[in-house]
Amino acid sequence: MKLTILGCYSATPRADTNPTSQVLEINNHIFLIDCGEGTQVELRRNKIKFARIKHIFISHLHGDHFFGLVGLVSTFRLLTRETELHIYGPKGLKEIITLQMKLSESWTNYPLIFHELTSKDSELIFEDDKVEVHTIPLIHRVYTNGFLFKEKPGDRKLDMNAVLNADIDVAYYRKLKQGANVENEHGEMINNADVTKAPIKTKSYAFCSDTAYNEAIVPIIKDVDLLYHESTFLEKHEKLAAPTKHSTAKQAASIAKQAGVGKLLLGHYSTRYDNLNDFKLEAETIFTPVELARDGKVFTI
Amino acid sequence: MKLTILGCYSATPRADTNPTSQVLEINNHIFLIDCGEGTQVELRRNKIKFARIKHIFISHLHGDHFFGLVGLVSTFRLLTRETELHIYGPKGLKEIITLQMKLSESWTNYPLIFHELTSKDSELIFEDDKVEVHTIPLIHRVYTNGFLFKEKPGDRKLDMNAVLNADIDVAYYRKLKQGANVENEHGEMINNADVTKAPIKTKSYAFCSDTAYNEAIVPIIKDVDLLYHESTFLEKHEKLAAPTKHSTAKQAASIAKQAGVGKLLLGHYSTRYDNLNDFKLEAETIFTPVELARDGKVFTI
């Protein structure tokens, strides 16, 4: 799993910072997460192939998280894309995009499929044989979801010495990999755990932006390998965080600690701060390891 | 009058080129003309004060001319703007912007006034005591206007020697400046032209993007000092220009010649061309002088 930060600042684009957008490469998928203004340019700068993006996840309808979407959808059309594009985001997003296509008389020539989200509970919104994506209901000024990206457990691994010693027919290997107990050639029931090993540990990534401090997400993001949690403010501006429904670095770290995540990644910084390292230092008083998102930075999970 | 090109390429933004947007400084106004994605970043790069922009003119509802507008409107809100913002553009633009404000629950705290355009004839859409803005109906795939920016003629200049010789009372000077004939102190009618000189020549700028070759605009843009006329294609791709309702460099030059403009400025280049100088060379076979718009370039009129 590889995460590329295209933009990680709050508010609007500036000459040297970009609003929220990330690319997650997971099991041959390229998932685009949020799409602030200028995302298509950042995709090009980071040499990410447009054609490989088939799923876009939009957390909420504040401009710094979706104003770049209509431009990207439109560019796909100009590039004569034919592949389906799936967009997951709050109800209303479809109306925004289709209104603009209608008025510019520029309908896409590829299938554009909206999956509008309205649930206040975590739900499975994407699944194939190797990956699942769940929503993470967040608390913000408008309806907002984070997203949990999980690899599915693969097959159990055969312990070949044990399998051969147990005289199990080759025809049963597939069932063993799937975790079933099977009969051996002598009609004896063989316990799966005695002849197989656990599958390779799966990886997971949770994206939580924007949100007030919200312990309700802890069970959903429990034990993820990497947690991106917004930290718009430092603790000294906690009084700004509460009414705007954002979090401080310390609050993000508290969530990371309670969820026992592998690593915390901070982002969505208010542009009022010059020294991002203060976010790291503040979070590290509660939880380690902590990393700072920065535009263009790549994290391997 | 000063024209700053923020972006001058057709289609969508790339890492090194911007879609259409221009800033015209005219008699203390800062007029923003078209607003492709990323315009707010280009405004910052070109150090143009956001607060001074009070009028935005949008030619048509293709994305490369307006996808940056909603972000700019939103940024003005975050900057706690209080000044009125007037937006002139095709019918539908208000619906696009207000839908997004509604869904993000982010209404502007400053007066946002839309002037939606529907006329197929040239009309006066802005006027104060020194400046006029008229639409230039263009031929494109969707409803499109160019814009003509004209300084109003100032007062006539008094020829003080002649005025004094003619024994005209000071009380009549204002009428003289306005072009009236007046009586002198001996009751004789004095011909205005004998005691005044023509006002300082006014300047004018015409912005025409996007459009098919259209001689109907010639009378509207007659004698302008600077004509920006799109040249999406070179003559060798004229077969692409016709169906997409764009122009070639040669066609732009032909319009410039017929209108007797002071200077032709080319832009809205298709990104298929590496060497922009070919546009200049092609246009110069018909008309001179020709200049090439380039992102970040400034022209004084």
TrEMBL record, chains A, B:
<comment type="function">
    <text>Zinc phosphodiesterase, which displays some tRNA 3'-processing endonuclease activity. Probably involved in tRNA maturation, by removing a 3'-trailer from precursor tRNA.</text>
</comment>
<keyword id="KW-0862">Zinc</keyword>
<dbReference type="InterPro" id="IPR013471">
    <property type="entry name" value="RNase_Z/BN"/>
</dbReference>
<feature type="binding site">
    <location>
        <position position="210"/>
    </location>
    <ligand>
        <name>Zn(2+) 1</name>
    </ligand>
</feature>
<comment type="subunit">
    <text>Homodimer.</text>
</comment>
<feature type="binding site">
    <location>
        <position position="65"/>
    </location>
    <ligand>
        <name>Zn(2+) 2</name>
    </ligand>
</feature>
<comment type="similarity">
    <text>Belongs to the RNase Z family.</text>
</comment>
<protein>
    <recommendedName>
        <fullName>Ribonuclease Z</fullName>
        <ecNumber>3.1.26.11</ecNumber>
    </recommendedName>
</protein>
<keyword id="KW-0540">Nuclease</keyword>
<keyword id="KW-0255">Endonuclease</keyword>
<feature type="binding site">
    <location>
        <position position="140"/>
    </location>
    <ligand>
        <name>Zn(2+) 1</name>
    </ligand>
</feature>
<dbReference type="Pfam" id="PF23023">
    <property type="entry name" value="Anti-Pycsar_Apyc1"/>
</dbReference>
<dbReference type="InterPro" id="IPR036866">
    <property type="entry name" value="RibonucZ/Hydroxyglut_hydro"/>
</dbReference>
<feature type="binding site">
    <location>
        <position position="268"/>
    </location>
    <ligand>
        <name>Zn(2+) 2</name>
    </ligand>
</feature>
<dbReference type="GO" id="GO:0008270">
    <property type="term" value="F:zinc ion binding"/>
</dbReference>
<feature type="binding site">
    <location>
        <position position="62"/>
    </location>
    <ligand>
        <name>Zn(2+) 1</name>
    </ligand>
</feature>
<feature type="binding site">
    <location>
        <position position="64"/>
    </location>
    <ligand>
        <name>Zn(2+) 2</name>
    </ligand>
</feature>
<feature type="binding site">
    <location>
        <position position="60"/>
    </location>
    <ligand>
        <name>Zn(2+) 1</name>
    </ligand>
</feature>
<keyword id="KW-0378">Hydrolase</keyword>
<keyword id="KW-0819">tRNA processing</keyword>
<keyword id="KW-0479">Metal-binding</keyword>
<dbReference type="GO" id="GO:0042781">
    <property type="term" value="F:3'-tRNA processing endoribonuclease activity"/>
</dbReference>
<feature type="active site" description="Proton acceptor">
    <location>
        <position position="64"/>
    </location>
</feature>
<feature type="binding site">
    <location>
        <position position="210"/>
    </location>
    <ligand>
        <name>Zn(2+) 2</name>
    </ligand>
</feature>
